[in-house]
Specification:
Layout (H helix, E strand, L loop, with lengths): L1 H22 L7 H14 L4 E6 L5 E3 L2 E2 L6 H7 L7 E11 L2 E9 L4 H7 L4 H9 L3 E4 L15 E4 L15 H12 L3 H6 L2 E2 L2 E2 L2 H11 L3 H24 L6 H14 L4 E2 L4 E4 L21 E6 L1 E3 L2 E2 L2 E6 L6 H20 L6 H18 L8 H4 E2 L4 E2 L28 E4 L2 E4 L12 E4 L2 E5 L4 E3 L8 H8 L17
Parallel strand pairs: 1-7, 5-6, 7-9
Antiparallel strand pairs: 1-4, 2-3, 4-5, 8-9, 10-13, 11-12, 12-15, 13-14, 16-17, 18-21, 19-20, 21-22
Helix pairs in contact: 2-3, 9-10, 11-12
Length: 490
């Protein structure tokens, strides 16, 4: 009997162990994924070349406080390494280093007990070897005297050096790695400003390769982008329910970003844009400081979560009071029609420019029909001060991924590209139109996966049609009863 109980106990414990392991399965990119990306890069590199990738610098916010660190997307794409002060070398052909042939070397920070006490643990050399799977790893301090003659390569490929790298005075930091590299390869900044290819140094070719790679998403990347998109659109939908006159732009921003964090998104994908009324006419308005939203105005919300390095890019424009006015609805429906026109065309093999053309035809015809364009002269459609379409002054599509405006080519659409379609109409005060239209701004931005047959809408968890938005805004929000104490009298 005791033996039977023991066996039952062991089986129960094993069951719980299996379940717990299932719960904590990570959806981060694996070391194998990054290794495959390094292999793909090597295949595209020219003969007898070496590619260098530096970590992003730590950027100072004020005095002794830095901004939260964000890794260089290319270095992350190739390694998964999220720490500063690192340099990756990738060789086209294997190089004999330390008595054996390797195709890659990483230089990174060593351990420092005091700094780790304040700022958290470092991966260190052994951690980088085991967790990242890099063939050869050294502390950054080793690079100064590292025995590698860059003059033997036909091409030394890298992105030109950043000019905002601070010297932390820590030996082997990013400042040192860049300085030592410049010395080793014979880099002369004044000459590179004139001609980006000097001797065997080339600061242009690597970007061409990276665009080819990062523009076409791997299955693992698409999974993470979908997660970021789902989080972002759920936030949009929940904020629609919570929206009320009297709220502030920053409060709306905070609700979005709170939901991002509830779903374990590490960052916002870009500075959040929350523009009510005339603020929506500023394309990259990020002050978000209007203290009280006005009954009857529109609010444009362009916010997205970054999940495990990959970002969405979502915009919704909604009425603060839950109901579009007649004129607001006319502009909104026109933008929606323009987006649908592009989405219906979108598929592999189409030119990127054809998507914009489809949206522009709908918007220009619609604005003429509404009488917003005063005439048919060029200055009626194009603002002579900016050279852009007066009321639709931006493009409609871009790649998303590790960057919100991700690396990729903009000639033909290809399968497994992930792009935005984001037409908009913006009619600022004092525009040459009837004042009834002034301060109306509408942008609808969604994320699409390009396929051979068409494109798949990824951002379907937040409504796009005006009628669906109004219906959702009538639903009670769980945030309606979240009331904070007043600060009056403090």
């Amino acid at each position: 009997m005791k033996k039977r109980h023991l066996i039952s106990f062991i089986l129960i414990m094993l069951f719980h162990l299996v379940i717990s392991q299932q719960v904590i399965v990570s959806d981060h990119l694996t070391a194998d994924f990054h290794a495959q990306r390094r292999t793909a890069l090597r295949e595209k590199m020219p003969t007898n070349s070496v590619a260098l990738f530096f970590a992003n610098p730590i950027r100072n916010r004020a005095n002794d406080v830095d901004y939260i660190y964000h890794q260089d997307p290319n270095l992350y794409y190739l390694t998964g390494h999220n720490e500063p002060h690192a340099l990756l070398l990738i060789f086209k052909e294997g190089q004999v280093l330390t008595d054996h042939e390797v195709s890659e070397v990483l230089f990174t920070r060593g351990h420092d007990a005091l700094k780790e006490l304040y700022n958290g643990p470092r991966m260190g050399v052994e951690g980088a070897k085991s967790k990242l799977g890099i063939q050869l790893v050294y502390e950054g301090t080793v690079f100064e005297d590292f025995n590698l003659d860059f003059s033997t390569f036909d091409k030394v490929l890298f992105y030109d050096f950043k000019n905002d790298v601070l010297d932390t005075q820590e030996q082997g930091d990013l400042f040192d790695l860049m300085s030592w590299t410049q010395s080793k390869i014979g880099y002369q900044q004044d000459l590179m400003m004139i001609e980006p290819i000097q001797n065997n140094i080339d600061v242009k070719a690597l970007d061409v390769i990276i665009k080819d790679m990062r523009g076409i998403k791997e299955v693992e990347e698409i999974t993470l982008i979908k997660k970021a998109v789902d989080i972002s659109t759920i936030a949009q939908a929940e904020v629609m329910k919570a929206m009320r006159p009297g709220m502030s732009e920053s409060e709306i921003q905070g609700l979005h970003e709170y939901i991002f964090k509830r779903y374990q998104a590490e960052f916002e994908g870009y500075p959040s844009i929350v523009g009510a009324g005339h603020n929506g006419c500023v394309l990259h308005y990020i002050e978000n400081n209007k203290s009280s939203l006005i009954d009857g105005e529109l609010i444009l919300m362009d916010l997205a979560a970054e999940y495990h390095g990959y970002t969405a890019d979502i915009t919704r424009t909604i009425p603060v009071n839950g109901t579009f006015s007649t004129d607001q609805r006319r502009i909104y429906d026109l933008v929606y029609e323009a987006q649908e026109a592009a989405a219906q065309l979108c598929k592999a093999g189409l030119k990127f420019s054809e998507l914009y053309d489809a949206t522009a035809v709908v918007i220009n015809n619609g604005l003429h029909n509404l009488g917003i364009y005063k005439g048919t002269q060029p200055d009626d459609i194009v603002n002579p001060e900016t050279g852009r379409n007066r009321y639709y002054p931006h493009g409609c599509c871009h790649h998303i991924g590790l960057d919100v405006h991700d690396k990729g080519n903009y000639n033909l659409l290809e399968e497994n590209m992930v792009i935005t379609i984001e037409p908009g109409i913006y009619i600022p005060k004092d525009s040459p139109s009837d004042p009834r239209w002034w301060d109306l701004a509408v942008r609808i931005e969604d994320d699409y996966l390009v396929t051979a047959e068409g494109c798949q809408l990824l951002s379907d968890k937040a409504p796009r049609k005006a009628s669906d938005i109004e219906a959702l805004m009538k639903i009670k929000s769980p945030l309606d009863d979240f009331i904070l104490p007043s600060l009056e009298g403090n």
